[in-house]
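Batch manifest, entry 17 of 40.
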Amino acid sequence: MNPQLWWFVARASGIVAWVLITASVLWGLSVSIRLTRTPKPAWMLDLHRFLGGLAVAFTGVHLAGLVADSYVQFGPSELLVPFASAWKPGPVAWGIVAMYLLLAVELSSLAMRRLPRKLWHAVHFSSYLIFALVTIHMFAAGSEAGEPALQWTALLSVAAVGFLTIVRVLAPRRAAAQSAKKAGAPAEPSRAAQLAALRQQLDDARVNDESEARVPVGAASRAAGNPDQGGPDTITWTP
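Output type: structure tokens
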């Protein structure tokens, strides 16, 4: 058996795990973007979960390869406790933290219906941190950091995650504007309704003032100067 077999297994499985985590984050962002009110097919969410579960499986293969390899001695403490490894303690610690966060995301996804929505969303939001930590871990601790293909793949992945995140933030506003336009309603119907009600109140108040200021018939006849009526030669206004 090739003595470097387990080292190759650890390296290859680590890169595959990073690819699967990146794909899971990108696909999750694509599923969460809602440009319309039409629900996404169920298979899209199932694929997102499958990619995350597969990433956990290859992370386990990565750890097993490190334990079986004799080039660098990794035991349970070096693989599970941050900064316990004597070989590149910082990059290894980032990978360990990312592993724990990945497990938390996957377990919360399995128990999504039993968890509060805010708690699940907060845990799932750490997927951004997982992607960042795993990328740093791969380039700082991996031996393939100098490969141009891997560098360009990582750069494009970071750009894609950033772009989809911006679209994810702006998509609800765009969908709301399109829905309002299709319904033929203004962007702020409540404000328009308030202005219309205020205008109607002003019109009603003006009509009431004009009706109260109108001269009565009896007062108008006295104002004509009829002495028999004994009224004053002035116009009497209704208070």
